[in-house]
Specification:
Length: 218
Amino acid sequence: MTKNRPYSFNGANNNNNNSGKRPPNKGGRNFGPRRNERIRAPRIRVIGPDGSMLGIMPPAEALAMARRAGLDLLEVSPNAEPPVCRILDYGKYMYEESKKQKSHKVAPMKVKEVKLRPMIEQNDFMTKTRNAEKFLFQGNKLKITLMMRGREMEFKDKAFDAVKRLIEELKHIGHADSEPKLMGRNISVTLSPVPQNQRKLKYSKDADEIPEDDSQEG
């Protein structure tokens, strides 16, 4: 026995009838802005390659103008009434957009390190201060590590004082993320740079001089 079909042959209940509407975007794929033959609006507002307004016209007319100039027609404001399209070099346009996106990406913050000793001499301390200042000036995080060996553990107060002194010397360009902590024989703390427009060198005259990173030391 033949089963009844779930739709009418006259198309009254046929869900495939879209009444002339644009077919759905299957799979959710995004093809980017429409250009050239993909522009479907009956009339568009056209901007010339030099930025001048060329008026409202059918897409076919604007595309012909673009072809004669060896360029493309790109829909730049699809929600405007009528949509706005521009005659341009599409390859150059995509290259410029790619550069803009890359320039807006924030580079991950690196962690640099300076290492101190409890009885560090003034000259060495100022060298470490200049290095630390440059790291923060460049937008890096800074780890300060003070290492104690043998009987130096008896002078923990002086060791903490040295670390706090360096934090104080760098307060114009960075701030401690927490209080210095003793872990085993080391005291450590991490500093973050102040916002870029507030960074100024106080101890270093040459911002381009490469500071010495102590993170590779034993």
